């Protein structure tokens, strides 16, 4: 079955590293929610998957941002009610909302559970107050740990947190402490990313002006290796390059992206994929709201060639511990592209960077290969448009 992504672009303040579409103009929140509901209704037939009682069946819903918990409880409830009205939501659906620790008081947590959320993704980033201030985060390390405990007490049994490493002047032992604290919280999922200097962000400008320096690449790789070691020793599965979970707690929604499962994205700047094409909404709050209010939302669309779909299959599949299912690759793209893939992979298999597994018949990165994954993916992808 398919999934729905709901983009909530509102933030109380903007972090220095963020290049996602977001806004600190909060006065349009309810108007935006009304536009969201109009889009959900208008695009009810975008997904061509199985139906129950005339409704498209979905088994994941993901509220991302921005900071979805910047919406009021009533606004969140209205969007959820609209989704349930339009779609046949599986009884076992994974329903996730992202939130920041400073928003997640007991009242908010109870309201989220009441309207159907069963998975919480918390943007913690670090347990160092100094590094939190550097990022312009609003919470403290103590508040982050408290929010996790409050979520557990409220009844959330599936909690994920985001962590970052590779801060300017950060040491390996400081990063190891962050990972240890995260493990000690008893959560089910951890996403960990190297701090990125994206063009257009405040962090990028700070680097260009010589105010900060990026962490040494060798140290960054050591941090990543230590992350893998500690989480695997603690019983986490390393199921995607940046994602680790307790057994049975992989992110089903994000896994659908990596497995090429169709999804619809609603909201400003949201992307959708129907299996053969991608489309995306305008990255403008005013254009999105006025477009939906007038019934003439302007979207951009890209039809994917077979080679482009092959490339996406390689790129997303190799990010996961399951790898690229070679039988499925042959079924989708034929023997020619399977041979192309295996010819390109041969030297990496010989060098111990890729391996073939038999059940199911798949090609995946080895632990050694993960460290040079970008170059391997690029080599296996086509040169065609």
What this model shows, in words?
The protein has 14 helices and 16 strands. With 385 residues, it is of the alpha/beta class. The chain folds into 2 domains: 2-258, Aldolase class I (TIM Barrel), CATH 3.20.20.70; 320-380, no CATH class. The strands form 3 sheets. Strands 1, 2, 3, 4, 5, 6, 7, 8, 9 and 10 form a 10-stranded mixed β-sheet that branches. A 3-stranded antiparallel β-sheet has the order 11-12-13, with no helix packed on it. A 3-stranded antiparallel β-sheet has the order 14-16-15. A hairpin with a 3-residue loop joins strand 11 (271-273) and strand 12 (277-280). It is globular, with a radius of gyration of 21 Å. 39% of the residues are buried. The mean pLDDT is 94.
Defining key terms:
ten-stranded mixed beta sheet, 385 residues, 14 helices, globular, 42% helix, 2 domains, three-stranded antiparallel beta sheet, 16 strands, alpha/beta, TIM Barrel
